[in-house]
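Following up on my earlier message about adenosine-5'-diphosphate. Here are the inputs again, as you asked, copied directly from the submission form:
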Amino acid sequence: MISSNKYTTLKQVFGFSAFRVLQEEAVDAILAGRDLAMLLPTGGGKSLCYQLPSLLMEGVTIVVSPLIALMQDQIIALKELGIEADMISSAQSNDAVQEVYTKAKSGVLKLLYVAPERLGSPQFITLLRTLRVNFFVIDEAHCISEWGHEFRDDYRRLGELRANFPHTPIAAFTATATPKVREDILSQLGLNDPLILRAPVLRKNIKITLRERDGAWRADLIAILKKHRDKSGIIYAFSRKETEELSEFLTKKGFKCLPYHAGMSPQLRHDTHKAFLNDETQIIVATVAFGMGIDKGDIRFVIHTSLPKTLENYYQEMGRAGRDGVDSEAVLFYSGSDFYTKKRLIESNDDLGYQEMILQKLKSAMDYATAEECRHKMIAAYFNDTIQPCGTQCDNCLESDIPKSDISVASQKFLSCIYKTGERFGGGYIGEVLLGEREKMRDETHAHLSVFGIGKEMSKVVWGIVAKRLIEMGAIEPDEYKSLKITPIGAEILRGKKSVSIRKERLVPKKATAKEKEYETQTPTHFDAFKKLRAQIAKENGIPAYIVFGDKTLMEMADRLPTTKEEMLSVSGVGAVKYERYGERFRELTLQFVD
Ligand code: ADP
Ligand code: ZN
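Thanks, got it. Here's what our run produced:
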């Protein structure tokens, strides 16, 4: 059935009519027997780059992947396409391993997934030598580098691969790699004159928004969730406790929602993950423990409830949205205080080198949150990439013409008041001094200071907002008792060398209910009906819904309403095998609509 031409294979097996950016170059390099290092953002379509050539080559492809869950997902998806794939992991019995091995030896198997630690075992190497391995794939290759944020000890052994198989090409793939990590991948894997393919660090289909986590932020959150009614999403929370509380809160608000964190039993975590994959639950409120194993293509939103520790983490977490290329959204709620909470946590670590490195990264994350440039551009710059401002896919580009107020004078009053009261008080008290609230003074000399009562033009709430803005800018810093200290940036503002501006709207705090009403809910569509059918089929077959067909495929169906087999096969994502399995049922549904 499989034709030997890459284009026909692309269409017949995978159901796609064109390669995406850099995919064809990668496929050609592998077919030519060349080593390859590929950096493609999440959702760029890395898997196809090695799966397709594997089909066109004799022998079996060995794919090293860091997590069993990831491998399982890939294998289910491949089997759905009619491709023979299997895995060998430490979780299997000897008999099971033997069975897989026999399949590989006989040449039936096209792709064999293995855990990295396997390749450190001499027995396994001996076994591999008896197979006809066409090329090796190292997935999530950044795990090999200690400079990476997901360094894995067992990836280090992969360096021996080249020595053991000097003539078998190696193809390495990753989505996130700083220059240092990239160097490590090339050198540690011993890649030989590899073709290096690197797509810009840009997730075009993800709209990025940052929101201040003010008193009404949960209403903001609900408004966002309502906008994504019935769509899958992840909310990253700060702590285990927060995942549980927030999940309970959202459940009460009528959302299908479950918590996920490392303190839960493995079984419960597994069930939760599965409920998410199968669309039985809509939202997962998780700690960062909900990580690499989530290979779900149709995640429409990723929300952070506080500032992530590093931009590497952030980029990877928010990057779990929209892997299928469909428009998705990433929202980060932050507060100036996040920086200090995390800083204190980091400082409790004894390793000074680590402290310094992570603090630097945390600082970059805070700068990112408070800056007013294009978000996509800032992320790209962080990974040493230069791109144009996105124009339409981030809050800063979209809101660049939002009116701003100059609050330099108010800021000077505030800073001056901190200074004159000895940097010993929190923002609330500073506001009271500025407002001249005599009865609240904790030290009666404060009522005689020149700053006493000089801020009556603004309310206490607005003084709080000024304080927040100054914390965001790094002009003042709360210590562990929440007393505000002036930083060098604050000193510049105080001397009139630096101005302070703020978006006008921020000075007028909104009521929670008004926010919720901002978004309306939509009426069910053809797409919803297709999704329902997909969920039913997924349930019948015991596979995740997105493996039946991706959102993008369903959207195209809903849009075009294909009524014949040919039309159905021309929908992106509908290959021959999948059409045979499910195509008819979707076609029948279309016919109902057309009638
Ligand atoms: P990555 O591993 O780079 O994050 P995946 O390999 O999971 O990305 O692919 C992301 C999505 O893109 C999948 O839904 C996949 O089916 C789809 N995809 C890959 N290649 C193409 C293509 N050439 N045309 C259309 N969709 C594609
Ligand atoms: Zn932008």
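One observation from looking it over: The first strand starts at residue 36 and ends at 39. Hope that helps, and feel free to reply on this thread.
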